[in-house]
Amino acid sequence: QVQLVESGGGLVQAGGSLRLSCAASGIIFSLHTMAWHRQAPGKQRELVASITRGGNTYYVDSVKGRFTISRDNAKVAVYLQMNSLKPEDTAVYYCAVMKYWGQGTQVTVSS
Question: 8, 20, 54, 78: which has the fewest C-beta neighbours closer than 10 Å?
């Protein structure tokens, strides 16, 4: 079965950085677009960034220039480098592929 396991969340001060990782199994990883979503308390889940199998990337406007999504097909993993973090980035971050989701990792940015 498909499994996605996120790691790397935590508490960081505004302006700081975190790197999220997502390890995938049960899929032919190199064939699929991978994505990071987030959900803040009281808000709908939103797509933050995605990366196609060819390496094309998408970012929501609010993170452009601050976040970088990357993938390592050999390690079957996708990453989200988050720099210049803001309190409004506080959310649970989820890795996703097709209809599958990870369990999420909490990112909290203090002001």
Answer: 54
What CA–CA distances, in Å, run from 82 to 6, 29, 30, 77, 98? 14, 23, 23, 16, 23
How do residues 28-87 score in pLDDT, each as one tens digit? 888 899 999 999 999 999 999 999 999 999 999 999 999 999 999 999 999 999 999 999
Position 97, amino acid: V
For tokens 């508490």, the residue is: 11
Nearest alpha carbon to residue 105 among 2, 4, 3, 7: 7
Closest alpha carbon to 14 in 84, 90, 105: 84
Cα of 98 vs its chain's centroid, Å: 15
The DSSP secondary structure of 73-94, one letter per residue, reads TTTTEEEEEE-S--GGG-EEEE
Q: Hey, how many other C-beta atoms are within 10 angstroms of the C-beta on 60?
A: 15
- Tally of CB atoms within 10 A around 5: 14
